[in-house]
Amino acid sequence: MQLSRVDLNLFTIFDAIYRDGGITPASKRLHLSQPAVSHALARLRELLDDPLFERRGHDMVPTPLARSIAANVASSLGGLEQLLQRSGRFDPGTSPRSFTIAMREVNELPFLPLLVERLQREAPQVDIAVVRIERRDLEEDLQSGEIDLAFDVGLPLSHDVRRERVTAEPLAVLARADHPSIGSELTSDVYLAMEHVLITGRRRGGGYEDIALGRLGMSRRIRVRCQHYAAACEIVARSELLATMARSQAQLGSRHSNIQVLPFPVEIPPLEMFLYWHANVDADPGSQWLRALLLGLMRK
């Protein structure tokens, strides 16, 4: 099969169906009619001699062949898109670009509403997707263009991944306002004696504070693990458990009428957060614009 005889737009449509799980959402992503997407899929099925997607209920489930080529297709399309972006200009007021940002759920609340507010005013056609960060695949996802930017703690990544420190925040502790064991001050002895809720997407292991405490020969008991900030706040408000997080996140939790915010009672380094992107988009005007926008919002 000669590449010159293949319509590369077929793979753009394949990628959209694979990402979105159906012809209807793919047609919306690509601003094409559903019959046009269906026709393109039929052509690609004939070209590759494979159904590629099989309908199960309302979903289009990829075949083994589709799964085996999906990553290479996404990487190749991402590389072409980055090449075109670097050679062109970016006008946020008119660009229809889409950007994907990876981060933990707990980091969305402090800045995402502000970002959407700015986009509505300054970039009305730009779409944003915030997705769960997968640290194991982060460098590969940045390189392929699967994600454009990531926001996370300091990570051991290669020099091909650029980073800029966004914040360095002290930790704070959320406790019930009428907690029977805590007065106006939280001591280290009381903190270590209490039970805690940890906000994490991981199945095991502690948080940043547990690593820092361990270096000082201290430990605490994690009674509950949960994935969402709001759930942790409700647990704190209804129990004697404590929750530890960056100060800015804790201040959001203090909006709850039955929660107080206290300084972290042990002297440890502040929690550093970084914005990550790949070197291959360093000079991309769209990535430069979004990075500047995010850094401004996150540092407020």
Write the layout of secondary structure elements.
Layout: H1 9-20, H2 23-30, H3 34-48, E1 53-56, E2 59-62, H4 64-87, E3 98-103, H5 108-122, E4 127-132, H6 138-144, E5 149-153, E6 161-169, E7 171-176, H7 188-193, E8 195-199, H8 208-215, E9 221-226, H9 229-238, E10 242-246, H10 247-253, E11 259-263, E12 271-278, H11 285-298
Parallel strand pairs: 3-4, 3-5, 8-9, 8-10
Antiparallel strand pairs: 1-2, 5-12, 6-12, 7-10, 7-11
Helix pairs in contact: 1-2, 1-3, 1-4, 2-3, 5-11
Task: Please give a structural write-up.
With 300 residues, the protein is an alpha/beta fold. The mean pLDDT is 88. It is built from eleven helices and twelve strands. It has a five-stranded mixed β-sheet. It has a five-stranded mixed β-sheet with strand order 9-8-10-7-11. The chain has three domains: 3-87, Winged helix-like DNA-binding domain superfamily/Winged helix DNA-binding domain (Arc Repressor Mutant, subunit A, Orthogonal Bundle), CATH 1.10.10.10; 98-167 and 272-298, Periplasmic binding protein-like II (D-Maltodextrin-Binding Protein, domain 2, 3-Layer(aba) Sandwich); 171-269, 3-Layer(aba) Sandwich (D-Maltodextrin-Binding Protein, domain 2), CATH 3.40.190.10.
